[in-house]
Structures are given as C-alpha cells and as structure tokens.
C-alpha cells in the first residue's frame, strides 16, 4: 500500500473505531465507573492495534517500574495524537487535565465528563487554577493519577520546548510526586500531518520527582528530564527506523 494511502486508511479507521465505541457503548456510561472504564480501555487498545496493523506503528515501554500505582501526577511529552490514547492502558485510573472546549464535543465530551476529566478555562486565570486544583485533589484522594501535558499542546519533533508554569503551580498545590514521561511518537505520527511512518514508538517512564521543591526548581528539573530523554529517543528512533 502506498504510504499516503496507508496513512489515509489509518486515519479513517481510527475515527470510525472511535465513533463506533462511543455510540455502541453509550449505555455503558450508566455502569459504575470502574466497570464503565473498560469502554475507554477497549477503545484505547483497539486504537493501538489498528495503528499497528494499518500504519505499521508499534510501541514499546521502558521504565515500567516507575509507573505510579496510587496518587500521582503523570507528565508526558506531547508530540502527537498517539499518546492521548496510548497512555490510557499504562495507568490504573487516569484523570486528564484538558482544555474545556473538548468537553463540548458531542459524545466525546460525555465520556470525558463521566470519567472525571478536569477542564481548564484558560481565560479565567487564578479562578480556573483553583477549580482545577479542587477537582484534582478529589481525584488524588481516590488514588487516581492526574495526567497533564506540561507544554499544554503538541509540539513538533525538534521544536523548542515551551513548558507552562501551570504544571509547577499544580505540583506545588497538590504535593504529590510527578512522573515525567519521554517519547518519540512525533517521528511516526507527526503533528498536523496526514502521513504515518512505520516503526516503533518508544515511551520512557522516568523516575518520579518528589514533592517539596519550589515551583521554579521543579519546572526546570521536569523539563530537563523529559527533554534530555526525548532527544535520546528521537535520535535512537531516527537511526533505527529512518536510516
């Protein structure tokens, strides 16, 4: 299959798969959360399978021993749409911090709300941060993991990092460990491009940053950890799959 056609088929299959899961499993939202979560898990795993079978994109996880079992913040690098579903099977009970507009998407927003996703209204400043922190505390008290992309949006491979201070404020407010996650998904599923490139995405779960640092020190440590390892993974992926 020609590369462009394969990428087109992979994209269509992903969206059809997503819509089918949301429509067919809609009654399942009435189930207790721990049972209804299997819907999201099934969607994520089927999306990974389709991406592998059609686009030729496999993945491997390094550092599984660093995955949190209880309350923690997980901070992945964000290069691609791929990690938005790939992170789901890695965690026991994740809660995503995301822009509020996603909650308005028909069907999709209902699922986000059902599983406790935390919307952020970027226009409300401090009030939004307080509301987000209250929701995050509630999730952490239930032993769940908060997932936040520290740059706030997808960044192309090789782009200058732009870490938002919001993640440092959340770290200071919540007082729990933060687990950095590096990856090279942007090599295979580039941001805002139709193309998909076959190969193996590598995800590296790094040792947690303990609570108690001042926000500035924490943010610098987080950025250094993620970017250093991401640069290594990108170089490794290019040498293995693009040479």
Describe what this molecule looks like in 3D.
The protein has 243 residues and is α/β, with parallel strands linked by helices. The chain has one domain (57-241): Glycerol-3-phosphate (1)-acyltransferase. Helices cover 45% and strands 15% of the residues. α4 links the parallel β3 (94-99) and β4. α1 runs antiparallel to α2 (33-55) and α5 (125-141) packs across α6 (166-174). The two termini are 21 Å apart.
Q: Would you kindly provide a brief summary of this structure?
A:
The protein has seven helices and seven strands; from the N terminus they run H-H-E-E-H-E-H-E-H-E-H-E-E-H. The protein has helices at 3-24, 33-55, 82-86, 108-114, 125-141, 166-174, 215-241; strands at 57-62, 72-76, 94-99, 118-120, 145-147, 178-183, 199-205. The chain has a seven-stranded mixed sheet.
Distance between the amino and carboxyl termini: 21 Å
Pairing-aware structural class of the strands and helices? alpha/beta
Largest sheet: 7 strands, mixed
CATH topology grouping? Glycerol-3-phosphate (1)-acyltransferase
* Succession of helices and strands: HHEEHEHEHEHEEH
The figure for the number of domains is: 1
Number of strands: 7
């Amino acid at each position: 299959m020609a590369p462009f056609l394969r990428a087109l088929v992979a994209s269509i299959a992903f969206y059809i798969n997503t819509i089918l899961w949301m429509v067919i499993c809609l009654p399942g939202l009435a189930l207790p959360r721990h049972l209804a979560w299997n819907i999201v898990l099934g969607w994520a795993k089927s999306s990974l399978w389709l991406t592998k079978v059609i686009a030729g994109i496999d993945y491997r996880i390094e550092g599984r021993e660093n995955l949190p079992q209880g309350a923690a913040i997980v901070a992945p690098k964000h290069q691609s749409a791929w990690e938005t579903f790939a992170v789901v099977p890695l965690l026991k009970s994740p809660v995503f911090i995301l822009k509020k507009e996603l909650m308005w998407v028909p069907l999709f927003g209902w699922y986000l709300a059902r599983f406790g996703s935390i919307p952020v209204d970027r226009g409300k400043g401090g009030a939004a941060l307080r509301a987000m922190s209250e929701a995050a505390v509630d999730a952490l008290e239930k032993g769940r993991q908060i997932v936040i992309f520290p740059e706030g949006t997808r960044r192309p491979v090789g782009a200058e990092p732009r870490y938002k201070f919001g993640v440092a404020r959340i770290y200071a407010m919540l007082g729990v460990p933060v687990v950095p996650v590096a990856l090279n998904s942007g090599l295979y599923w580039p941001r805002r491009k139709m193309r998909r490139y076959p190969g193996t995405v590598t995800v590296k779960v790094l040792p947690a940053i303990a609570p108690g640092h001042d926000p500035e020190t924490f943010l610098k440590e987080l950025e250094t950890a993620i970017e250093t390892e991401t640069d290594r993974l990108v170089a490794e992926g290019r040498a293995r799959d693009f040479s």
